[in-house]
């Protein structure tokens, strides 16, 4: 059996918390290897980086996500009973429920609602001295995705739900108060989502097409049984929360535009540039650093035997910045995607591989559409200034975000 390097630190939990984005790639560089073993939370783990590692990790049916994440992260993001915690036929069946919501028409409709919310809110921004883009985006996305899903929100509820969903995302990578805040608020959001599911089950159906809320509430599992209301509620939040999370990418997109104003004209010109810029934002900026899994079916990779129950972490941020895949990976260069043929294992901010048989994020198209819509609004829909502020991104904070959350002033509709 091949020898794989071992990081001799007694336990690397602190290193993961403090340097999550570079934790795996720095050590892989140091050991001249795509994989190494260490201990995190006192538990042995194998860490791997790069395209081959993504192929290994996303090979169908090798891994389960059950037991792979610390409870604090699991409860902030997916939660028990969610699609990500399922395997095999049960996973495939539930995943279909999500995939069925992602038709081009349906995604376009969400984009339209987002733009509508943006235009309405811009009236208010014009009267404000300054606007903190990140927080505004979270609320606009929350309002848009609730309307798209078929949920009516009062003004107060929109503010409250945004606060709760945003706290879950912000707390996902933390230990301590930031994480606890997300979890405390989650209890209230789950109660609200469960009531929505129960009410929908007793209400007449929308015509001619079911809303996403109805699709989830009325979904039947592979044996023909309705989902327990609390599981359906978790899946409803699995649509709402990550859509609100797209605000982070939009904030990064605004920052990229500020740092590279030469792209403004190009982005006005056409969809091809907006697509390239969006892909580069998702590649370049830090979101989830890594993804973990537990070996379900033993296999061999690079001469190493992975046994049932082994804990493995795949380096997402490092793979998106791997110099074997990306020339000058730490430069922001949307044109790198000009002749890109697509590769499901090199650009992996939202997972890799297959959608139906694997855990790759079903929300990728929504994410891309919403970032593109935001770029259109930023370059063609309004004028604004970016005052002096702290735009640094602290990579020891998980998930990362520009310190000031991107403040703009003198907003004017174009
Ligand atoms: C901010 C943008 C987003 C990021 C960075 C992101 C990232 C991810 C990642 C890393 C995974 C896990 C992949 C794995 O376990 O291997 C995932 C799964 C998932 N995402 Fe996203 N996501 C985003 C947006 C969305 C959106 C907009 C939706 C839905 C509208 C969504 C719904 C889901 C669901 C349901 C899963 C579980 C899939 C499965 O287990 O098969 N995500 N996402």
Automatic annotation (TrEMBL):
Gene3D superfamilies: Cytochrome P450. One of its GO terms (molecular function) is iron ion binding. Keywords: Heme, Iron, Metal-binding, Oxidoreductase. The lineage of its organism: unclassified sequences, metagenomes, ecological metagenomes. Signal peptide: none annotated. Belongs to the cytochrome P450 family. InterPro entries: Cyt_P450, Cyt_P450_E_grp-I, Cyt_P450_sf, Cytochrome_P450_3A. This is Cytochrome P450.
């Amino acid at each position: 059996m091949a020898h794989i390097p071992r990081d001799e630190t007694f336990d690397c939990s602190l290193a993961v918390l403090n340097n999550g984005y570079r934790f795996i790639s720095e050590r892989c560089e140091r050991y001249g290897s795509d994989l190494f073993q260490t201990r995190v939370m006192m538990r042995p783990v194998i860490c791997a980086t790069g395209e081959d590692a993504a192929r290994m990790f996303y090979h169908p049916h090798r891994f389960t996500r059950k037991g792979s994440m610390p409870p604090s992260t699991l409860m902030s993001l997916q939660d028990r009973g969610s699609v990500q915690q399922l395997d095999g036929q049960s996973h495939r069946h539930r995943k279909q429920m999500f995939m069925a919501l992602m038709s081009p028409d349906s995604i376009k409709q969400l984009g339209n609602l987002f733009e509508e919310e943006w235009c309405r809110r811009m009236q208010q921004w014009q009267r404000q001295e300054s606007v903190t883009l990140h927080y505004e985006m979270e609320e606009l996305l929350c309002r848009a995705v609730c309307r798209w899903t078929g949920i009516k929100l009062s003004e107060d509820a929109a503010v409250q739900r945004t606060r709760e969903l945003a706290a879950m995302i912000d707390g996902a990578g933390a230990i301590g108060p930031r994480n606890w805040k997300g979890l405390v608020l989650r209890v209230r959001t789950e109660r609200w989502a469960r009531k929505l599911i129960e009410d929908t089950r007793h209400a007449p159906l929308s015509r001619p097409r079911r809303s996403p809320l109805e699709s989830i509430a009325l979904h039947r599992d592979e044996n023909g049984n309705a989902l327990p209301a609390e599981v359906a509620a978790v899946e409803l939040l699995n649509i709402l929360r990550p859509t609100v999370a797209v605000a982070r990418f939009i904030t990064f997109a605004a920052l990229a535009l500020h740092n590279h104003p030469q792209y403004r004209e190009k982005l006005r010109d056409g969809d091809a540039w907006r697509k390239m810029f969006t892909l580069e934002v998702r590649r370049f900026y830090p979101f989830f650093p890594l993804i973990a899994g537990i070996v379900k079916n033993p296999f061999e990779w690079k001469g190493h035997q992975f046994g049932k129950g082994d804990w493995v972490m795949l380096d997402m941020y490092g793979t998106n910045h791997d110099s074997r895949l990306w020339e000058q990976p730490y430069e922001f260069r949307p044109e790198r995607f000009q002749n890109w043929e697509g590769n499901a294992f090199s650009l992996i901010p939202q997972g890799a591989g297959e959608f139906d048989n694997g855990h790759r994020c079903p929300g990728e198209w929504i994410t891309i559409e919403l970032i593109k819509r935001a770029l259109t609004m930023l370059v063609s829909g309004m004028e604004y200034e970016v005052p002096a502020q702290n735009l640094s991104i602290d990579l020891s904070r998980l998930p990362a975000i520009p310190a000031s959350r991107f403040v703009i002033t003198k907003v004017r509709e174009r």
